[in-house]
Fold this protein.
Amino acid sequence: MPESWAETSGERLAILGASGHGRVVADAALGSGWGSISFFDDAWPILQVTGRWAVLGTGVDLQRMASEVDAVVIAIGNNRTRLMWQRQLVHWGLPLATVVHPSAIVSRYATLGAGSVLCAGAIVNPFARLGGGCIVNTAASVDHDCELADGVHISPGAHLGGQVTVGEATWIGIGANVRQCITIGSDTVVGAGAVVVSDIGSNVVVFACPRDQCTRASRRSRIRTPRDDEGRTCEARSTRDKYRHPRSPRVVRHK
């Protein structure tokens, strides 16, 4: 991780990823001083406009058009895909922008890795250290002395207490809360609204709260269809619900 951070700005910013998140990043970039925005997305040429901005080509086209932009930021939600592209852009010699919305609050003692994005209302407190390509989304907070590896996404309204450690490419869902001094592994998903009160390993998905009351399904086991007290199959109301028994709503699934 870098030893210090400085918000980057310039005239011409390229954004890789023309989804809704990309438009949020564009808004933050313009608010923080960037002069113009151009988008690149692998859906081009079918997708040629996103919001008010033109989509100029695919991700590969960025290498050819490198002289036409001052920096690039990746606005792809999938953490592993974002990291893959970030490493590819670095290999091509393209500079990475760090975008911080003007309403975000970042301590002078915090560290932000290259290519990170802080959305409106985000807070990063003193001595927190974020790796490259992290996202601290709308109204999310990262408290003092937290350590986030590369490619971590803290979703809108999620909050990390002090001294939390989060592994590479982990996703903290909307409205989740993580107690201080917790360690979460890499490639893990903490579901929306979860409350994490004890450590979590790598490559797991955690739903509901409190986390320490969740049950674990082994890697080789198969989660059975929920049944009611009389043995009848319970109708799943959503993809998430089909993994829940009505009397045991807390589940951890290993990938």
